[in-house]
Specification:
Blueprint: H1 9-37, H2 39-44, H3 51-83, E1 100-102, E2 105-107, H4 109-116, H5 127-133, H6 138-150
Antiparallel strand pairs: 1-2
Helix pairs in contact: 1-3, 5-6
Length: 151
């Protein structure tokens, strides 16, 4: 049984955040290198800019860059806090069937966790349960499972 990996929202957010930082850093480095080396003077024949003016512009651009990063980080953090659900507190669970009590009703563990988090479930049977539930076929099933896992 083939499974496909699904990216969680936090992984997607991390990828977007990293891309944003890389692009912003590239832009900042290009802008700062322009100021440090006075590229318009050398490439376009403009009047040379004084070092004091270029130094001030570099400092201002670094301040801009830091501000953009800080504001973006706060924005992404707030967005993630809204999306991430955390299970906490006491959860009354049946010791036998693992259903969870919600007021009067009981619901499956899978339903409860799926409803209260971003987790999803895929079901399988562990080797101990295969031996207990299917003792006549357990060895054959386990052998096939090991062969499949080795591929």
């Amino acid at each position: 049984m083939a499974t496909t990996a699904r990216k969680s929202p936090s992984q997607a957010h991390r990828k977007i955040w990293v891309s944003f930082i890389i692009l912003l850093t590239a832009f900042a480095l290009m802008t700062i290198s322009n100021e440090i080396f006075d590229l318009p003077h050398y490439l376009l024949g403009d009047e040379p800019t004084s070092f004091a003016q270029r130094k001030g512009e570099v400092l201002f651009e670094l301040l801009e860059y830091s501000t953009i990063i800080a504001v973006s980080l706060m924005y992404f953090r707030k967005r993630l806090e809204k999306e991430i659900k955390i299970l906490e507190g006491f959860i009354p669970i049946c010791a036998n069937c693992k259903k969870i009590r919600r007021d009067i009703d009981w619901e499956t563990l899978e339903h409860y966790i799926s409803e209260h988090s971003l987790a999803t479930f895929s079901h399988a049977i562990c080797p101990e349960c295969i031996k207990a539930l299917y003792p006549d076929y357990a060895d054959e099933i386990l052998t096939k499972m090991k062969e499949r896992d080795q591929r």
